[in-house]
């Protein structure tokens, strides 16, 4: 019998139903309007000036099924190129720029890992995947993973010992990329220390595709986005997306020029745009649906993508794919098991099961060129949301 996620939630409709998101006031969401006013004002300032934090951004925040904040600021496309000599973006004429909208899709970068993780936990729920099973049991041809005893848990918790990435973008073809990944050995003993690595999700992608005989994009579409009605979410290309980087050496790893609608991550691009660690595009509203689903125990409307016990497994520290209680981008939402992730292009989301709140902040901070990450604005917005809860009489937090 197919699971509720496989049937697009039809079985779930007979068992569980969770309210869908709806726009509303801070008061209706049980949030302090003054704190949210501060959040919005500070958010709008992020795209101002000659060297803004981001060219453009979108924020969605809420509590329970109510969206209390949904704002866009700045530009989805502001620059035509990056001038290395001037260390500045080449501004487009006003008439050629593209304003940011709450409907603008973004290159999610590493937020893709969250969808890969949910797809994996769906297989745990179905019994086709074991959390402590060895990767080599599913991928015997991945000789290094088999030799070192890497497990599914190691991949999902970033404790495999694998280095952060491989130069797959420099390989001449797909066979060479696959051979490099199969032979990659851990640099530290598996299971001992946390070490964030894109390779974990690439291996997990191969595990999922091997056991289901379906591609990752199909698993994400059929198991997550289609049941939830996330029609703006999918792997690229995505022509209307916010622009990212004028990708050129020496600051980047490939020479591709100004990117818009094509995946920014060089390895995901080399892999055809569908990868376990990067490649998805989405809007802030769609990601709010994703957050709301997890906060509601895996259900949204009549759809169910996971059971509550498996959502708890996904979000319980240290988290499976999700980062838990990281103050550097979660601000004062930390302390109760807030979970989320950031993406290199400027994307982030946080959900807090205790206060039933969520915050999605998407920005094209790498437009026109990548730079050291500044997560201060993310933490500040999360702190405003936490204070909005605490400012309500009798509220949790």
Report the CATH superfamily. DD-peptidase/beta-lactamase superfamily
Largest sheet: 8 strands, mixed
What's the CATH topology label? Answer: Beta-lactamase
The total beta strand count reads 17
Number of helices: 14
- Give the overall form: globular
Distance between the ends? 42 Å
CATH architecture: 3-Layer(aba) Sandwich
Can you give the mean pLDDT?
Answer: 94
Query: Given the helix and strand composition, which structural class is it?
Result: alpha+beta
* Structural Rg: 20 Å
Low-pLDDT residue spans: 1-15
Helix content: 25-40%
Describe what you observe in this structure.
The protein is α+β, with helices and mostly antiparallel strands. The chain has one domain (12-390): 3-Layer(aba) Sandwich (Beta-lactamase), CATH 3.40.710. Helices cover 32% and strands 18% of the residues. It has 14 helices and 17 strands. Helix 2 (33-45) packs antiparallel against helix 14 and helix 3 (112-126) packs across helix 9 (216-228). The N and C termini lie far apart (42 Å). Mean pLDDT is 94; it is low at 1-15.
